[in-house]
Amino acid sequence: MLIRFSCKKRVPTVEVPTIEVEAAGDTPLYHETALSRFIARHEGLRLVCYLDAADVPTIGYGHTATVGRADVGVLKITKDKAHALLLQDIKWASMSAYAITGYSSGNVHDAITSFIFNLGPGALHGKSTQIGRHLLNKDYTAAYYGMQKYVFGGGRRLNGLVTRRKEEGEMLLATK
User: Fold this and answer.
1) CA–CA distances in Å: residue 97 to residues 39, 50, 85, 90, 133
2) Each residue of 93-120: pLDDT tens digit?
3) Which residues contact 97 (CB under 8 A, 6 or more apart)?
4) Does the N terminus or the C terminus of the chain have fewer Cβ atoms within 10 A?
5) Alpha-carbon distance 41 to 22, whole Å?
6) For the whole model, what pTM was predicted?
């Protein structure tokens, strides 16, 4: 199965295959990286589907793509499945970040991948922030300040998002 997305008309469409992973006994399914640890730490792990602060059905480490309202409180997954979904979602966000920034690794890539993982690629092109334009122009300071506006969930300022945006911004600025 392929997921097709386009971040903006000027950015080419990228096809990202989904990852189907089945648990096989004690075989580790999860390849940890600094980026996956960063995202997992900020997302937290919930093995039963729930509504997040923005009222979005969520499971595992912030996975929202394949769950709906009917799954809330009912759908349960294993830790291995949560890790597989995390890797799948990171791959999707990473390809989105690459399509926007042209970087496939490093601080810019990791900061923007985390941001996209949390908010989706559309957040980079909001009229009030224009983060995507700043990234294309390599104006990381302006991108940092734009990212700091995304700290609300369900209409409330969330301390966890304030911390995450600060850390993503610091990662982005460490590029200089």
Assistant:
1) 14, 27, 18, 10, 13
2) 999 999 888 877 889 999 999 999 999 8
3) 103, 109, 112, 113, 116
4) N
5) 23
6) 0.80
Burial of 61 (0-12, 13-18, 19+ CB in 10 A): buried
pLDDT tens digits along 13-57? 333 333 344 443 433 344 578 999 999 999 999 999 999 999 999
Mean of per-residue pLDDT scores for the chain: 83
Cα dihedral 93/16/86/128 (nearest 10):
20
For residue 50, which phi and psi values (nearest 5 degrees)? Answer: -145, 170
